[in-house]
Design goal:
β22 and β23 form a beta hairpin. The protein folds into three domains: 179 residues, FAD/NAD(P)-binding domain (3-Layer(bba) Sandwich); 120 residues, FAD/NAD(P)-binding domain (3-Layer(bba) Sandwich); 58 residues, Enolase-like, domain 1. The chain is globular and about 60 Å long. By secondary structure, the protein is of the alpha/beta class. Its cofactor is FAD. InterPro entries: FAD-oxidoreductase/Apoptosis (IPR050446), FAD/NAD-bd_sf (IPR036188), FAD/NAD-binding_dom (IPR023753), FAD/NAD-linked_Rdtase_dimer_sf (IPR016156), Reductase_C (IPR028202).
Length: 386
């Protein structure tokens, strides 16, 4: 338990770190809160970067309002963590001492190998650059990676009259995240809007030929493009934690209270990990440790971590939720869509598909039906309580 006179260092200037600072203050921590952020701007919202930010420049990268009193040091990168000594090493050769530390360095975009990697979309600067391209003369854009970012960039590009081709090595992208039925429905919406899909085709390389780009596929085909955008998922920023003794296999392993776990299996009482960086066991995945990489998950992590550091009772475990837009449609997910898929249930403007394992609801996806979510949430929470 940290005391009011002590210092908590938050490493990472993203949403999860900011929400943890707010949660600590709301739970009575009045000590020194020091934030270290590699980015040179204050915390901003990332989900809009692949949505409205590509269509509307207003507010891109604008600081999120907050009531937390944090002394942020911007443009500074953490390079090491000494748990025993109680300090964080920075790239300007300083050491910052802590009584407790919040690990919130998040993730970075994965890239294709080779000298030409395409445009990724992870930061506000990425969104500003991509928007400037899409708002230029329409041409041909190839999107490598048919995840949520790829889908949302495709919508933005079509709205600017670009010819769009989406390529993914998986023959059924987003089926794990949305379930097979909704994933098929989503890609049908893209086809209906004129998007070409090359699913099940691996990308071998990107080459430059005069003023255009050639995307080479494993089939031997070649796609001509004026721009290439990659949405290949994310890699946890854990390199700075090498040698710390923490388990950093695919993120920072934590216990259910967000306390970082060492390679020896010990949960550290004064080191917590939150947000995209954290790999936390959850009942929603049958106790498996997972990284959610969603906005709502960062808030849940923040409150659990703050409670653990303050020695207070943990908040109730809530089912994960996230959403995406595809043209005029809103797709909302609650829980984990795995198990037996139900027949679609028709709603006033859309539909809902549920997933059950052993007859128990594990998750659901609602399309254009937000009123259905509270009932699904209650059922999931009743299962958790039982």
């Amino acid at each position: 338990m940290i005391r009011a006179s002590e210092r908590t260092v938050i490493v990472g200037g993203g949403f999860a770190g900011l929400r943890t600072a707010e949660a600590l203050r709301s739970r009575g921590f009045s000590g020194d809160l020091l934030g270290v952020s590699a980015e040179a701007r204050y915390t901003y919202a990332r989900p809009p970067l692949s949505k409205e930010a590509l269509r509307n420049p207003d507010g891109v990268g604008a600081p999120l309002p907050t009531t937390a009193d944090v002394r942020w040091q911007l443009g500074v990168t953490a390079t090491g963590l000494d748990v025993t000594g109680g300090y964080v090493e920075l790239d300007d050769d300083r050491r910052v001492a802590f009584d407790a530390v919040v690990l919130a360095t998040g993730v970075r975009a994965r890239h294709l190998p080779g000298p030409i990697r395409g445009m990724a979309l992870r930061t506000a600067e990425d969104a500003e650059w991509l928007r400037s391209v899409l708002h230029g003369t329409p041409g041909r854009v190839v999107i490598v990676g048919a995840g949520f970012v790829g889908s949302e960039v495709a919508v933005a590009a079509r709205s600017r009259q670009w010819h769009v081709t989406v390529v993914d090595v998986s023959p059924s992208p987003l089926a794990t995240a949305l379930g097979p039925h909704v994933a098929r429905w989503l890609w049908e919406q893209h086809r209906a809007h004129g998007i070409e899909l090359r699913l099940g085709d691996p990308v071998v390389a990107i080459e430059k030929a005069e003023a255009r780009l050639h995307v080479l596929l494993g089939t031997g085909d070649k796609l001509i493009a004026d721009a290439v955008v990659t949405g290949l998922g994310a890699r946890p920023n854990t390199e700075w934690l090498d040698g710390s003794g923490l388990d950093i296999t695919d993120g920072v392993l934590t216990d259910a209270a967000q306390r970082a776990v060492t390679t020896g299996g010990t949960a550290l009482p004064n080191v917590v990990a939150v947000g995209d960086l954290a790999r936390t066991p959850t009942r929603w995945a049958d106790g498996e440790a997972v990284r959610w990489e969603h906005w709502a998950g960062a808030t849940t992590d923040a409150h659990r971590a703050a409670a653990a550091l303050m020695g207070q009772n943990l908040p109730a475990d809530v089912p994960p939720v996230f959403w995406t837009d595809v043209y005029e449609h809103r797709v909302q997910v609650i829980g984990l869509p795995k198990g037996v898929e139900s027949e679609p249930e028709a709603g006033p403007r859309g539909f809902c598909v549920g997933y059950r394992a052993g007859g128990v609801l594990t998750g659901a996806v609602a399309v254009n039906w937000p009123q259905r979510l509270p009932m699904l949430r209650r059922e999931l929470c009743q299962r958790a309580a039982a």
